[in-house]
């Protein structure tokens, strides 16, 4: 079995995703092509990186993940195959795989003639480069056949969690479809009995489930990615607090900011 | 072949659905994972129940349906495996399978250690409970391995069709994406030459096809689920009549309400 | 392997697409059912035709494409199987396959009893006619088993590119999800050093990539379908130029319209 996942910002209405699927199946007709999402906001590399990091780790060994959120299509960013020792990632080198693959084992530029269409459309590398490369990998070619090894250049430009003279802060790295605020503060760094300040509101302590608070109430909890999240039960925290990606959450312990 | 369908209110942009797919494929890499929908309105159990009832009966024997519309995640509602003698349904016990499975043959609580992740995230049972259980079933485990047999508790709270001293009524149980109004009045209970009153409008008789009326006109017809439906040809009946789920349609025969 | 693609205007929330998938898999449980799109604007035959033409050619020989954008469901348009010598297309005869299959090798009306449900719902031929027919084909039946050979009647009513006494014009045949304007002017008919006039704006020459111009700037380029396209880099050309499908682009060479 060969499993190929797809994650793009193409939407589906234009048939572009269909073309990508066709190219993969042309190379390997019995591949299982699995949609992660095609509804990433256009050019939102950080959102795609988050979705990939949520989904990818759960797939079986050998899965090939194709990620095409690529504002620089046809420009200088490099199409690459990234190997993390378990899965392969076929993507532009623009940071989109950086959350899912913090420590690549190897990366290769996609340069070989048979890993690209003969004359790739400059505007549709999804079909003419990334899908062709994924098809070759699905058909059993080695990632090192794609081209020369490279160092990845792309970064997301999202700061990691930080602790400064004013205390400890968590950064909101994603707002999910429910308006929940997902931060980069790992569970092991959340102090017991902490309070959290965000968007002018304060939350006392960590709730175990959404049902621990009443409907419409704000809560802090450890999310499915094992980091601090902020939500409104059956509501939309991003809208109600008017905060978004990049905003900070102040972490307060024992009446004052953790320092 | 093992077929696993997915029906959620997750949307796809956050990668949560991708995680669910990965977990299923991890357990059974050659399963065919089939999307029913991930665009159910958040927490709309009745809408998911309708979609499941539309889709599920058509799948081959042995199909496993995973349904995660679960406002009570982490709370007291029970994750269950429901067997109707033909298919298995993996879902919270909140009524979401009640239309597709009006008479379960058996139901089991999902309690066994190997039918759940070791430490399920309280906010993501889709991945850590339902997908794990579906993966075990897809890999050949018996539903009774999931846990002890239980009686299902969940209901939708939608009344069935009713007939009272004032006559016969159909209830709108779903508004579809086209704005068509789907009722619970079964074809065999629709009187010949009936008229229908809804939202202040009256419709005479049953149309055989949409093309039986002119564009923009209201019609009553027997829908694909063999119940009475109301639509506007190439229009949106819910919007134009300003009615929605739960509203009643009065059924009139021979000049007066059927009594 | 049997690959069956689906392209509809159903959306997914009502479970109708799920029903179609179930019917196909009932007939051929190991078919690979591949979504092209279910988000085509309701009844927009031309948009579905474009998406199909983008996607279909890339699939392996033997692929079956099911296309259900069918405003005339239950009416007089004929359900057909179209064979282009490489793929089969199962669709209403309303022009929706005309871009993907400009020269059909053969077409057959879907009339045989086993290529339709016993009593097809007049409002859901997607499930009761097209999916049943696709299932039969996926299970190995010949397209000529569907019914008698027919001449296709459906057309899109989009003019081809034209050249008149006033010069050469390209016609916008599609606005994609990014707002890019896709025309019918084939690359071989684009004069070197041409200028383009559309919506009151003028564009000089063909850009090789989006990165050839600054953000927010208008560009003309050869798109992935090898025709002239107009876009705004990281913007929405349809909105900014206020033009849409059917609008013309004037092609000017050497200071005057090409004649």
Describe this structure in words.
The structure is a homotrimer of 259-residue chains. By secondary structure, chain A is α+β, with helices and mostly antiparallel strands. Chain A has two domains: 3-145, 3-Layer(aba) Sandwich (Rossmann fold); 162-257, Elongation Factor Tu (Ef-tu), domain 3. Chain A is 16% helix and 30% strand. The first copy, chain A, has four helices and 15 strands. In chain A, the strands form two sheets. In chain A, strands 7, 8, 9, 10, 11, 12, 13, 14 and 15 form a nine-stranded antiparallel β-sheet that branches. In chain A, strands 2-1-3-5-4-6 form a six-stranded mixed β-sheet. The longest helix of chain A has 14 residues, at 125-138. Chain A is elongated, with a radius of gyration of 20 Å. The mean pLDDT of chain A is 91.
What's a concise summary of this model?
The first copy, chain A, has 4 helices and 15 strands. The first copy, chain A, is of the alpha+beta class and 259 residues long.
Main attributes of the structure:
Rossmann fold, Elongation Factor Tu (Ef-tu), domain 3, 2 domains, six-stranded mixed β-sheet, 4 helices, 15 strands, 30% strand
- Mean pLDDT score of chain A, rounded? 91
Distance between the termini of chain A: 51 Å
Instruction: Quickly count the helices of chain A.
Output: 4
Along the chain, the helix and strand elements of chain A come as EHEHEEEEHEEEEEEEHEE
Name the chain pair whose interface involves the most residues: A-B, 40 and 34 residues
Any idea what the radius of gyration of chain A is?
Answer: 20 Å
Q: State the major sheet of chain A.
A: 9 strands, antiparallel
CATH 4th-level superfamily of the largest domain in chain A: S-adenosyl-l-methionine hydroxide adenosyltransferase, N-terminal
Share of residues in helices of chain A: 10-25%
Number of DSSP E strands of chain A: 15
Q: Could you state the oligomeric state of the chains shown?
A: homotrimer
Structural class per helix/strand content of chain A?
Answer: alpha+beta
> Remind me, CATH topology of the largest domain in chain A?
Rossmann fold
């Amino acid at each position: 079995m060969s499993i190929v996942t797809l994650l793009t910002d193409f939407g589906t209405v234009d048939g572009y995703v269909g073309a990508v699927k066709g190219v993969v199946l042309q190379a390997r007709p019995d591949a299982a092509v699995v949609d992660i999402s095609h509804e990433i906001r256009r050019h939102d590399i950080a959102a795609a990186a988050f979705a990939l990091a949520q989904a990818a780790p759960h797939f079986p060994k050998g899965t090939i993940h194709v990620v095409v959120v690529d504002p620089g299509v046809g420009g200088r960013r490099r199409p690459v195959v990234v190997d993390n020792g378990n899965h392969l990632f076929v993507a532009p080198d623009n940071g989109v795989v950086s959350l899912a693959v913090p420590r690549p084992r190897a990366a290769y530029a996609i340069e070989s003639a048979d890993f690209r269409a003969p004359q790739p459309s400059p505007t549709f590398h999804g079909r003419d480069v990334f899908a062709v490369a994924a098809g070759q990998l699905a058909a059993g070619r080695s990632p090192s056949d794609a081209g020369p090894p490279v160092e990845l250049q792309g970064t997301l430009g999202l700061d990691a969690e930080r602790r400064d003279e004013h205390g400890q802060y968590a950064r909101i790295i994603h707002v999910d479809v429910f308006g929940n605020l997902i931060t980069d503060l790992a569970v092991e760094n959340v102090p017991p009995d902490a309070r959290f300040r965000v968007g002018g509101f304060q939350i006392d302590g960590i709730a175990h489930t959404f049902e621990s608070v009443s409907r419409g109430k704000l809560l802090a909890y450890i999310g499915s990615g094992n980091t601090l999240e902020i939500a409104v039960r059956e509501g939309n925290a991003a809208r109600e607090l008017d905060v978004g990606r990049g905003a900070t959450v102040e972490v307060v312990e024992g009446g004052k900011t953790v320092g």
